[in-house]
Amino acid sequence: MGPQGILDVARELGVSEDHVEPYGRNKAKIDLAALTRPAAGAGRLVLVSAINPTPAGEGKTTTSIGLAMGMRRLAKRAVLCLREPSLGPVFGVKGGGTGGGRATLVPADDINLHFTGDIHAISTAHNLLSAMVDNACHFNTSFGEKGAIDPRQVTWGRALDMNDRALRNVIVGLGRKADGVPRQDRFDITAASEVMAIVALADGPEDLERRLGRIVIGQSTSGAPITADDVGAAAAMTALLRDAIKPNLVQTDEGGPALVHAGPFANIAHGCSSVLATRLGLLSGDYVITEAGFGFDLGGEKFLDIKCRTMGVFPRVLVLVATLRALKMHGGAPVKRAAEPDARALELGLTHLDKHLDSAAFFGLPVVVSINVFPNDTQEELALVEAAMLRRGVRAVRCEGFLRGGEGALELAEAVASAADATDAAPPAPRFVYDLAEPLRDKITKIARTIYGADGVTFTAAAERDARRIEELGHGGVPVCMAKTQLSLSDDPALVGRPTNFQVTVREIRLSAGAGFAVALTGDMMTMPGLPREPSALRVKLLPTGKIRGLMQND
């Protein structure tokens, strides 16, 4: 099995050639008209999530790709739905976001870099609104009874698809009077932009424009909220995003279809691929394999409480990815030594896995634990995890997609297909952590207690004011998007394992009225990451052949 022409991939997906917009020979956009055809598959949704990872990640994307490959080898119609990689992590800590080893997406270099231009379009749409906001400030434009924008109350920053800590706090408008109104501003990474979240959650062009128009950019001099519609930016932003809203079609290294579309982070955004790509997958396949970023406490909870509410669908089964090294880290082993044999640390780390299984049980989801196998894992420690899961009544399966591609994921594919098929008669009923009608602070507290295991939540005075303001504006009924470290169940990245007797501190709550949620920032979470001391960019090089070396960790 190997890659095939992109039109052949589209045919396997059941998409007419008339609805395929090729971007070169090996990637394409799918016209939204393809979403109007009748369903051709059973559309069983499979969510792939994970335990809290080490900084290098635990291979959730590699597992998702391997699972799709394995199902295809079993002659099952599987469609893979993943997020687009951001250049920030590609050149930062993790490297490329297209899997690894023999479980990869192709063309990996294109996907990891500019792909079809979606993220650039999203950055441009975001910054068009920024420019129009500052233009309105410069000309002191009045918006009817609301009045003019108060430059001191502008909350809409700028966006860049790069990790650059120097841009977290900037001053704009310096120079002459003609150069604008001086004020403090900020850059967010594009993956944290509300425009990215809107593209991921929009159900079509009309919904996209409505959501963009609802974006709140700040306040007027009278204290009224000013929106993108007030500024007059929504229509032009929608035009910039005309193609970006269309799902991207690529393939696995074994030729199976993969819809890779939208890329919100899961620690500082909602962490799911687009609603439109998922809908297309559900129309086309018997099994739709999608992942939510980072651990189940972050992307998994948001997938269920935000994306599933928006779509009106619910997963049939949860695949929970774990690695021996991450379990040992959660058992107290230093990260740099977590790959070494340490049965005691592994046993202690299993309590962390237990917490995620408890959370999955709260949602009523059947679970298959996928142990992503690394070359230095020992048989004894792998058997220890399998025995612990057997005692709990959960099936644990080894996955060697990285080393062996689809062949290394056959057992996982069989287990997941069996678990999903078993729900045909009675699919899991949707269940959520909170009711939308509850106050924002109660929703946040429920997430912290139910999913993180916290005793409660401490709200700073600023967060209390934010919550009151959002509710006064009539947006109290939105879901909550928690911005939290991915390395711990708590808001402290150093607190590993299954912590107890802790509080989560919320320092700020931002309204994303267009996306339709409120972002609760905890701990030291930043919406513009920085590069590490030795960024992955140091490994990247264009070769004389035109190939790019160093984008993937295994290059």
Automatic annotation (TrEMBL):
CDD domains: FTHFS. Transmembrane segments: none annotated. GO terms for biological process: tetrahydrofolate interconversion. Pathway: One-carbon metabolism; tetrahydrofolate interconversion. SUPFAM superfamilies: P-loop containing nucleoside triphosphate hydrolases. The keyword ATP-binding applies. Keywords: ATP-binding, Ligase, Nucleotide-binding, One-carbon metabolism. ATP binds at T54, P55, A56, G57, E58, G59, K60, T61. It holds the Pfam family FTHFS. Gene3D superfamilies: Domain 2, N(10)-formyltetrahydrofolate synthetase, Formyltetrahydrofolate synthetase, domain 3, P-loop containing nucleotide triphosphate hydrolases. It catalyses: (6S)-5,6,7,8-tetrahydrofolate + formate + ATP = (6R)-10-formyltetrahydrofolate + ADP + phosphate. Its EC number is 6.3.4.3. GO terms for molecular function: ATP binding; formate-tetrahydrofolate ligase activity. Belongs to the formate--tetrahydrofolate ligase family. This is Formate--tetrahydrofolate ligase. It comes from Polyangium jinanense. The lineage of its organism: Bacteria, Pseudomonadati, Myxococcota, Polyangia, Polyangiales. The gene is fhs.
